[in-house]
Amino acid sequence: MEPLEQQIRERVLAQLDLSREISDEALLSLIQTTICETGRKEHLTIAQRVCLQRKIFYGLRKWDVLEDLLSDDSITEIMINGPDTIFIERGGRIEKTDLTFSSRDKLDDVIQKMVATNNQRVNASHPIVDTKLADGSRINIVLPPVAVDHSIVSIRKFPKERITMERLVALESLSQDMVEFIRVLVIAGYNIFVSGSTGSGKTTLLNAMAEFIPREERVITIEDSAELQLLDVENLVRLEAREATMEGKYAVTIRDLVRTSLRMRPDRIIVGECRGSEAVEMLQAFNTGHDGSFSTGHANSAQDMLARLETMALTAGELPLEAIRAQIAAGIDIIIHLGRLRDKSRKVLEMTEVMGMEQGRIRLQPLFVFEETAAAEEVEGQWIQKSKLHHTDKLLRTMGRLDGIVTKFV
Questions:
Q1: Is the per-residue pLDDT at 60 higher than 70?
Q2: Per the count of CB atoms within 10 A, which of 81, 117, 278, 393 is most buried?
Q3: Superfamily, domain 165-408
C-alpha cells in the first residue's frame, strides 16, 4: 500500500465509531472528506482522488483489489496465487494482472470476509473450503500449510445474463439440429447426462436445456454449491449440500439430498454434478420413474464417463459391478459430451445414445459427432448426424406434445 493511501486509511479508521454500524454511504462520505483535506496539501488531481477513494473504500468495505475484477462481466475466472500474483481468465484465455494485495494480512482479511458471508470458517486446522459470493460466484480457498507458498483462492464467475440455446448456437457450441433434438429429448423425458472437462460448459448447457422442461412439472435440483439458474421452471425446489462443522458434525451430503428428494414428489431430479458415491443414489433416482432427469460429471469422453460412473458407484460399496452397469444402462438414455478445444472454444463434441447391455458391457451409439474440416489454429468443423434415435418408447408416449421435427431424428 502506498504511504499516502495508508495515511488516509488510518485517518478514516481513527474517525470511525467501531461500536456501531456505518452505512456504505456514510463511510464513502468520510473517505471523500478525508481525501479532500489531504488533497489540498498533496496537490492531488481529481483522477488521483477518485482512485484513492475507490481503493480505500474497496479495502475497508468490499473486496479490495478484487472488486473491479468481480464487477467485470468479461472475466470468467479469478485465480489468486498469494498476495502478489493474480491471474484472470477472459474469453477462454488466461492472463496475469498487475494487481496485488497490500500485504498477506490483507489477502487473509478478504478470505475471512468471503467465508463469513456463508457462516463458514477456514484456518490452519481446516485449510480447504468451498463457498460462494452473493452473486453465486463459486469460491475455492486453500490455506497454508496445504498451500505450500501462499493462500490460494479460485473464483469461478457466472454470467449475469443467462445463456440460452439460441446463444449457444450463435457461439457455435452446437448446431440448430442438435438444439431441436435436445428439445425433443427433454420434453419426452429422456434422462440426459452431460460430461466434459473443467470449464467445458456443462452447467451452462444444463441451464439452457432447462428451458425445454414443461412448465407444469416439479423439478428438484441438488448441488454441492448452488449454480443452476432454471428461470423457466415455476415449481422448482433447490437443495444444496452442507459441509460438516469443525467438529465433524451436521454434514448434509449429496447422497442425503438425493434420498430426501425422492420424498418430495419430483417429476424431474437434476443432480448438479456427480463426484463420488452419490452416483448410486443418482442412478437409483433415474431408475425410479423420474424421467427427464439430468446430471453432469467430469470425463474425457462419453465412453470414459461410463467408466467414471462405475468407479464412483463402486466407492459406495453397495452394489457389484454388474448391477451398477445394469443401473447405468437402464437409467441413462443420452450422454452429451463437451470439450474445450485448442482455440479455447467450447463445443458439444458428441451426443451418444446408451443402447443397453451387450456381453456384460454398456454399448453406446453416436448420434451426433463434431468433425473438424481443417487443421488450423482456429477450429473449423461441423456436426454430423451419425445415426437416428433407437429407443423411441418415450417419444411415442409424448408424441402429442411434440411436432413434426421428431421424424428427423427417429
A1: no
A2: 278
A3: P-loop containing nucleotide triphosphate hydrolases (3.40.50.300)
